[in-house]
Amino acid sequence: MTRTDATAAPERAVTDAPPDSGTSLSHGLKQRHLSMIALGGVIGAGLFVGSGAGIAAAGPGIVLAYAVSGLLVMLVMRMLGEMAAANPASGSFSVHAERAIGPWAGFTAGWVFWIELCVAIAVEALGAAAIMVQWFPATSSWMWVLCFMVLFCGMNLAAVGNFGEFEFWFATLKVAAIGVFLILGVLAICGLLPGTSAPGTSNLTGHGGFLPNGTDGLVAGLLASVFAYGGLETVTIAAAESEHPVKGVASAVRTAMWRIALFYVGSMLVVVTLIPWTDTSILTGPYVAVLKHLDIPAAGQIMNVIVLIALLSAMNANIYGASRMAHSLVERGEGPRFLGKVSNGVPRRTVVASSAFGFVAVLLSYKWPDTVFKWLLYMTGAAVLVVWAFIAVTQLMMRYRLEREQPERLVVRMWWFPALTVVALLGILCVLGLMLREKDTAVQLYATAGLTAALALVGYLRQRVAAAPRG
Predict the structure, then answer these.
(1) CB 93, CB 394: distance < 8 Å
(2) In a domain? residue 9
């Protein structure tokens, strides 16, 4: 046994066997839940609203930016799917990193991810509350935040099947909304909608050309598009609580990857083909701009409903993901032991702790929006790339070990290994390097690097203490 193996305390392996009784997590998620979590997990408000800034920076070249970042995301998802199918665990990549690299790596990746999700919970709660205040001006934002936090904390305290059912229907609505948008867009591009004429390529090549702002604009669009894809990790966390973890995650990953790319790249192509990228209405919401261009009644309110659904769905999924990651860390001796209790298959204490951290972050946004809360956002600004880097390095190390010791567990295989794994890792490092080009993204990178380094140091010291001889 190696030193790393000796000091690690890995989660119990999860197979397609019936769940254990007692303190283990339940297996209440069905295959349809996993499939929609995989598909809807990366479709958030960043796509519906935030993509406008990317279009303003890159022009029609945003299609290329989303295609490149989409390829990177597909590679990361495939790597994660390979490891999750080989060994499903509620700690997902954190467990795999601990086994492949060392306990310090699992500790670092897990807590970076947990903090990222908890801050995201706060951001999503604030965004959802802002929409509700638009509809009900006499109400206050904090009332809606409190309502949403209590609702989704309560939902996650109940059986995991409730979370799965909620996410299934919310993901279905998001996917259906994008599907309808794509159908309307294609019909309009072909000139088949009443009152519309085919625009041809005038908006793609006019107004400064396909790359009106050159490579600088393309880089800005690439950075915006990469962070819009966050959320793909949730399905591999949820797989550990499904009826058939190995088969479930393998199927979900295989079917979700190309559909996600189609939704993102396809919808961006529709936007920049139908309306000029210089149209200022794109900044406030490219989907609304297109729907108004097509004279769809109440376009703004329709998109507000969809954005609200996306925010609430992401909020619910992040409470779930954060609570399971925290539970996994605690179970491996890398978190406060009092949070480790499981009741009726649900880690309720980590659900409450994750929700509470998110709620505290909301309070910080009210009290110190430009200082404390702003730095919380900065510290998690590049966290998704840190997690992806851990995934790539872990898969590179684990694949060789699995091929040598347990090749039968490779139900899902990374394409053209190890070449594409190395390409993905270089792509992640390239994006991190591009963040240094802009002042705001550079500050985010430095802050995230500081958080990661601090957690890595704590994790390494814990590993050294655990490995030291007692006597």
Answers:
(1) yes
(2) no
